[in-house]
């Protein structure tokens, strides 16, 4: 275009002349023809001798023009400014350039370009690479799992100074498997390792490997390890590895299942014919029981690090870590909060601090005080208050008797956890709540403690029977009966706590496992043994039912007084329960106020009254699983 516009020849050349000379030529009859452009004022003409000329009509005062012409003044017209050559080329060629750019973009997409989203990029790894400066988490941000931190701290030393171990012939573990309940900080601990070691950190989820196309998972595993080799030494973190690491042969697809191909490729990459020096694989799961044995053998995941629920000291340390970001009141003590939160994980404690901050923000406070932490703890343990739910007076009275029965029996039976709080305000799915808190962390349960729990679970139903009669008993004890029966059955069949049945396992054996669930069960006992087990379970329940009934009959006056106290205050704590059991006038709760308008006593934040179903009225207690399992 440039050559064409600048160097193309013309048939004739025209000379630019002034306007006054043009007028004289017109007067003298020299001009033979002329063409005038109305928009620009340009005149293109030809003289009689064949000479071409060009002039511009100047836009000015006509009187001035006449005077200039009479005085033989040369007057020139100026051509209007035109756009530059580059601008004109761009304007004329812009549509074509746009089409070419769109065509190139779609071609790159079809060929697998454009950021790895094309049809040929399914086999590429989806692992995200975090650089050395992108990870700010250190071991100082991880609390409550000191033993786990010690197990993984040598990884940091190896990545920082590998010759320290190689001199003595030591070899760093190829893989670290972090096992523990949800929310205990497995992912956080892996990030802390990368933050301390200052090495590249690849992170991916187990579900990112498997796609709808066959062979994609295995291809992504190969690509991930190829990328890791280029950045060695580095860390690969696979979260929820049980998504691809389940036992092989359990599914319907057999050995050709896509998930099993992915697992096979991962086994080869971790410890196959070719080694992966300088690559440490860290995986996290809360289901180690479903993982393939080949994945757990030495040389692959050499070490299993258990990240369990924190004890009271660990909970205090975790609370202090999360409290750094919150303005605290002078009366906040992390040790007291840690004592009152047994069984809480690190995620639960972080949620506790956040809920306390939200409570303080709602009331416009500048700091978070101990009251907000107590409210947050009650909300997490017992559920949110259902202030919009209305209960009839009879339903409310029945709930008060029920919860008072739980509290009184729980106080009187031996080795039972202390009663922390009793409330008839609907929370969560329950119409009323009796909350117990252990004095210390429990890792096992005695026979006496379990039988005391069964007695306290039946306290609510017995209180309804004593006060309202057999016809007045409601469905509120359905969950209590279920939990009491479960404890009694495990005492007989699993825990060997029945003198009649002896220390034997009578539980049914699991059959074939399909996708992590039991398809069938095999019965390994005779019918006579099954009848004896049922009789022993009923004997344990009847014995503890009669004990709870005797306690409530002997403390009928306390039952009535506690019912009246719950009807008045709606929520009582351990101090009021101590006064009631001592048969003295209970002190009012700290948050209780008097409504001057109606002249009626009511607690702040109390629930209104109307009809409701009492299906889920139950006491809240720590979960009872295997006494030897610290996670329960």
Provide structural commentary:
The chain has 632 residues and is an alpha/beta fold. The chain is built from 21 helices and 19 strands. It has five domains: 2-70, Signal recognition particle alu RNA binding heterodimer, srp9/1 (2-Layer Sandwich), CATH 3.30.720.210; 85-121, no CATH class; 128-306, P-loop containing nucleotide triphosphate hydrolases (Rossmann fold, 3-Layer(aba) Sandwich); 312-381, Helicase, Ruva Protein, domain 3 (Orthogonal Bundle), CATH 1.10.8; 393-603, Up-down Bundle (Methane Monooxygenase Hydroxylase, Chain G, domain 1), CATH 1.20.58.760. The protein has helices spanning 2-7, 19-27, 62-70, 85-110, 146-160, 163-166, 186-197, 216-230, 258-270, 293-296, 312-323, 334-339, 346-362, 370-382, 393-412, 447-457, 459-468, 478-493, 527-554, 556-569, 574-581; strands at 14-16, 31-36, 42-47, 52-56, 128-130, 175-179, 201-205, 234-239, 279-285, 303-306, 419-423, 433-436, 509-510, 513-514, 517-518, 521-522, 571-573, 592-595, 600-603. The strands form six sheets. Strands 5-7-8-9-6-10 form a six-stranded mixed sheet. It has a four-stranded mixed sheet with strand order 1-4-3-2, with helices on one face. It has a three-stranded antiparallel sheet with strand order 12-11-17. Strand 2 (31-36) and strand 3 (42-47) form a beta hairpin.
């Amino acid at each position: 275009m440039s050559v064409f516009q600048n160097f193309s020849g013309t048939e004739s050349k025209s000379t630019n002349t002034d306007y006054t000379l043009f007028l004289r030529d017109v007067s003298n009859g020299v001009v033979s023809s002329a063409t005038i452009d109305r928009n620009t004022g340009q005149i293109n003409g030809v003289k009689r001798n064949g000479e071409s000329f060009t002039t511009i009509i100047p836009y000015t005062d006509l009187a001035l023009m006449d005077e200039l012409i009479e005085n033989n003044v040369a007057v020139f017209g100026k051509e209007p400014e035109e756009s530059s050559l580059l601008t004109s080329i761009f304007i004329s060629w812009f549509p074509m350039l746009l089409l070419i750019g769109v065509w190139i973009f779609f071609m790159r997409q079809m060929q697998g370009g454009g950021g790895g989203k094309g049809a040929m990029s399914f086999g590429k790894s989806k692992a995200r690479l975090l650089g050395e400066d992108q990870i700010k988490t250190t071991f100082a941000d991880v609390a409550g799992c000191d033993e786990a931190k010690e197990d993984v701290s040598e990884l940091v030393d190896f990545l920082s100074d590998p010759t320290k171990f190689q001199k003595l012939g030591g070899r760093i573990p190829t893989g670290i498997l972090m096992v523990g309940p949800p929310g205990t900080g497995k992912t956080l601990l892996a990030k802390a390792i990368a933050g301390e070691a200052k090495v590249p950190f690849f992170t991916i989820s187990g579900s990112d490997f498997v796609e709808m196309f066959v062979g994609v998972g295995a291809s992504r595993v190969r690509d991930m390890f190829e990328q890791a080799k280029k950045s060695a030494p580095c860390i690969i973190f696979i979260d929820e590895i049980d998504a691809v690491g389940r036992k092989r042969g359990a599914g319907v697809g057999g050995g050709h299942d896509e998930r099993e191909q992915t697992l096979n490729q991962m086994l080869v990459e971790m410890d196959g014919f070719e080694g992966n020096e300088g690559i440490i694989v860290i995986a996290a799961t809360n289901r180690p029981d479903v993982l393939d044995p080949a994945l757990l053998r030495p040389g692959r995941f050499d070490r299993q690090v258990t990240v369990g629920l924190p004890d009271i000291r660990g909970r205090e340390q975790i609370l202090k870590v999360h409290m750094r970001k919150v303005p605290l009141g002078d009366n906040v003590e992390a040790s007291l909060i840690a004592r009152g939160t047994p069984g809480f994980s690190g995620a639960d404690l972080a949620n506790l601090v956040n809920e306390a901050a939200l409570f303080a923000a709602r009331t416009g406070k500048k700091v978070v005080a101990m009251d907000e932490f107590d409210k947050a703890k009650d909300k997490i343990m017992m559920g949110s208050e259902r202030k919009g739910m209305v209960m009839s007076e009879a339903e409310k009275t029945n709930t008060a008797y029920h919860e008072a029965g739980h509290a009184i029996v729980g106080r009187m039976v031996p080795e039972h956890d202390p009663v922390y709080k009793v409330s008839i305000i609907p929370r969560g799915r329950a119409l009323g709540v009796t909350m117990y808190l252990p004095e210390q962390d429990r890792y096992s349960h005695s026979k006496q403690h379990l039988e005391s729990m069964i007695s306290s679970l039946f306290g609510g139903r017995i209180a309804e029977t004593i006060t309202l009669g057999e016809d007045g008993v409601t469905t509120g004890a359905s969950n209590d009966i279920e939990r009491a029966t479960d404890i009694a059955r495990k005492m007989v069949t699993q825990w060997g706590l029945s003198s009649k049945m002896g220390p034997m396992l009578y539980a049914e054996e699991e059959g074939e496992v399909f996708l992590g669930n039991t398809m069938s069960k095999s019965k390994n006992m005779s019918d006579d043994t099954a009848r004896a087990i049922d009789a022993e379970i009923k004997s344990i329940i009847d014995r503890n039912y009669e004990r709870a009934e005797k306690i409530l009959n002997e403390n009928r006056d306390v039952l009535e007084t506690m019912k009246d106290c719950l009807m008045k205050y709606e929520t009582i704590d351990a101090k009021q329960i101590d006064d009631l059991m001592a048969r003295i006038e209970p002190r009012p709760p700290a948050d209780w106020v008097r409504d001057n308008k109606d002249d009626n006593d009511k607690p702040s934040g109390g629930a209104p009254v109307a009809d409701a179903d009492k299906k889920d009225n139950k006491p809240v207690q720590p979960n009872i699983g295997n006494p030897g399992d610290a996670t329960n």
